[in-house]
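User: quick one, sequence for these tokens?
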């Protein structure tokens, strides 16, 4: 399984730039896009789920290892920091190490999950992947971070929500096994955005009303007119830049994008379920990793979500989780139903 944080449509736009000042950016985007395309076909395959009994194991401590490829693309690279060792002089290595730990902590403390696979999976990350590599990705076994081109993107370890997002793909891989295509793929992406945001909020102890609900804040350089890659609160508003263009995410089914690109629009249409989660969290208030996060986590890991789930199937599953957890007449169940109605997904 390979899932990257920067959407192919963004890389294509950068790769097409022909201004001399952006030649390095275009070259970096082309290389990143070729890397994505080289293994894209495998992403559409359904993934095996983990038996529910395994998911209930008691959480243990994290087991982190950070590697450095030294600008090569040969994984995993040389070990630069192991679990329990002190910080190094490399910001990328330290950010990766801390981000792995923060993500592990969210799943252990908020959801009782024993690492990404529910069985204490060691958490590995590689930094300094490739030359000016414009992406970060989960390859089915570990996290990998590029350093960015320096013109549009900074190093990808800067954003905790990116680390949380990519590791959440591992959780999906080891639970519902959602295929990475069309609406199931958009749900897959949305779940990663949701839990990426929750990792950041959990670490900073930000309530739903205080959080910025951005994915990838801090990735862009000062030359970009934009705050992040995506916004759960207001899909379609994360950036509006002369080079990158405008954030294309829809915020309801009224603007659903029908396309064969990006595996059927998985990074674009994820804005719809993203906003649904934000609306639930906003309606209920308090900490989003508690009630809303529990509903979404139970939906993902409960064993009843098909690998080819549609938005409607997923919406019904979240409503069922809310009903089972809090009751049919609860404010929680009502908030979930109202959120999906707002984004025009039928229950």
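Assistant:
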């Amino acid at each position: 399984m390979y899932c990257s944080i920067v959407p192919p449509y963004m890389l294509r736009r950068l790769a097409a730039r022909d201004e001399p000042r952006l030649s390095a950016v275009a070259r970096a985007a082309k290389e990143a896009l070729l890397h994505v395309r080289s293994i894209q076909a495998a992403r559409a395959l359904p993934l095996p789920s983990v038996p529910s009994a395994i998911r209930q194991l008691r959480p243990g401590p994290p087991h982190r290892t950070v590697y450095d490829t030294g600008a090569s693309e040969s994984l995993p690279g040389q070990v630069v920091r192991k679990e329990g060792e002190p910080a190094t002089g490399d910001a990328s290595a330290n950010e990766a190490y801390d981000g792995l730990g923060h993500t592990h902590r969210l799943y252990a403390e908020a959801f009782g999950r024993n690492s990404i696979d529910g069985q204490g999976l060691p958490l590995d990350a590689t930094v300094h992947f490739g030359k000016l590599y414009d992406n970060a990705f989960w390859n089915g076994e570990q996290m990998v971070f590029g350093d960015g081109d320096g013109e549009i993107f900074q190093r990808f370890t800067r954003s905790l929500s990116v680390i949380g997002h990519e590791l959440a793909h591992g959780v999906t891989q080891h639970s519902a096994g959602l295929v990475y295509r069309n609406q199931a793929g958009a749900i897959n992406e949305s779940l990663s955005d949701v839990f990426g945001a929750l990792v950041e909020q959990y670490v900073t102890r930000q309530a739903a009303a205080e959080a910025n609900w951005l994915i990838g804040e801090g990735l862009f350089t000062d030359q970009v007119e934009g705050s992040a890659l995506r916004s759960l609160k207001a899909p379609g508003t994360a950036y509006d830049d002369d080079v990158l263009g405008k954030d294309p995410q829809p915020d309801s089914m009224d603007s659903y994008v029908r396309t064969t690109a990006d595996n059927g629009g998985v990074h674009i249409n994820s804005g719809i379920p993203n906003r649904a989660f934000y609306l639930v969290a906003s309606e209920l208030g308090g900490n989003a990793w508690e009630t809303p996060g529990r509903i979404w986590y139970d939906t993902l890991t409960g064993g009843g979500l098909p690998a080819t789930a549609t938005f409607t199937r997923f919406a019904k599953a979240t409503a069922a989780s809310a009903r089972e957890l809090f009751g049919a007449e609860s404010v929680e169940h009502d908030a979930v139903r109202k959120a999906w109605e707002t984004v025009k997904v039928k229950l």
